Amino acid sequence: LKVLLIDGRNMGLGLLLLPAVLALLCGREAECTDPDIMTNAVYMTENTMILTCNLSANSFVSGHRWLKGGKVLKEDKDTSNIMTYNVSGLPEEGSGQYICEFLTTPNVSKVVNVSVSPQVHHYKATEHGNEGDTGVLTCKSSSFPPVTDWSWYIVSPNGVEAIGNGSSDRYVIKSSGNQTVLRIHNLDIENDQHDYTCNGTNELGAKGDVVHLHVRSRLAALWPFLGIVGEVVVLVTIIFIYEKRRKPDEVCEDEDSATGALKSNSGANHDTLRQRNSN
User: Fold this and answer.
1) Assessment of whether the complete model's pTM goes beyond 0.70
2) Suppose 180 and one of 52, 124, 175, 265 were both cysteines; which one would form an S-S bond, judging by CB atoms 3.0 to 4.6 Å apart?
3) How far is 94 from 143, CA to CA, in rounded Å?
4) Domain 120-216 falls in which CATH fold?
5) Who's near 26: CB < 8 A, 6+ residues apart?
6) Higher pLDDT, residue 11 or 101
7) Mind listing the GO molecular function terms for this protein (predicted)?
8) pLDDT digits over 166-178, tens only?
9) Residue 32's beta-bridge partner residues?
10) CB neighbourhood size of 247 (10 A)
11) 200: Cβ–Cβ under 8 A, 6 or more apart, which residues?
């Protein structure tokens, strides 16, 4: 559907009909994506960017609105046909799909993609697991566009080896969008305690990160209990030795006390007998 403006006399009529034409195309009082909105994105620094939307159609604008993920980022009542937004936090949380919306009748908008290569990070730098249990390693990417392909590698003294769902019955990989999870069943302290690399790829490139898996012995859970038992044994031994060394000394002291008491009683009896004889 085209509006032909033949001369100046029809110009005013054409401008009046423009909102009605947009209403027919998009639905009355509804939003639509206007092909007459030109977009531009310019990096100011490595972490910041300015987005610009320019409405080329001669339409009355009562304001602007910037959105991302359904959340309003900025809104004003400026009547200009140009609107801008400063993006920060690149290349991770700043990336994504932004919508510039012109408040007209009806509102018209356009999507502006801020795309970067994957920004892959491990969930934990070191994951722990016990022998015989299942180890879980997780990596994620918070950037846009989403990762389209995830891959895992094991880094051992023998080199780097790719891990796939079919490479071993013990390995299970589940990836969805911007997250990937590697599960290793029946952990072995000799064969599984290594570094693992997760790699994410999208249309703009690839990036990875490293996760270390520490496998504990089956007896690891008993070490705290065995430590407590050892402390109790040492304490009881010390008390026993102390008591054993203390008892002979106490016996000697008791014998000396008894001997002194007998001598004292004997002397007292002797004095009493002498007094009786003198009488």
Assistant:
1) no
2) 175
3) 8
4) Immunoglobulin-like (2.60.40)
5) 32, 106, 108
6) 101
7) D-mannose binding
8) 778 899 999 988 9
9) 108
10) 10
11) 118, 120, 139, 141, 147, 149, 150, 178, 180, 206, 207, 208
Residue range 170-212, pLDDT digits in tens: 999 999 889 999 999 999 999 999 999 999 999 999 999 999 9
Cis amide bond preceding 146, omega within 30: no
Q: Which residues contact 182 (CB under 8 A, 6 or more apart)?
A: 136, 137, 138, 152, 163, 171, 172, 173, 196, 198
Residue 61 has pLDDT above 50, yes or no: yes
Question: Which pair of tokens denotes residue 169?
Answer: 């019955």
Cα gap 56→85, rounded to integer Å: 18
Q: Which residue has the tokens 């390693």?
A: 137
- Give domain 37-114's CATH superfamily: Immunoglobulins (2.60.40.10)
User: Hey, where are the domains in the chain?
Assistant: 37-114, 120-216
Token output for 152: 């895992």
Neighbours of 127 (CB within 10 A): 19
- Short-list 191, 195, 196, 116, CA closest to 151: 196
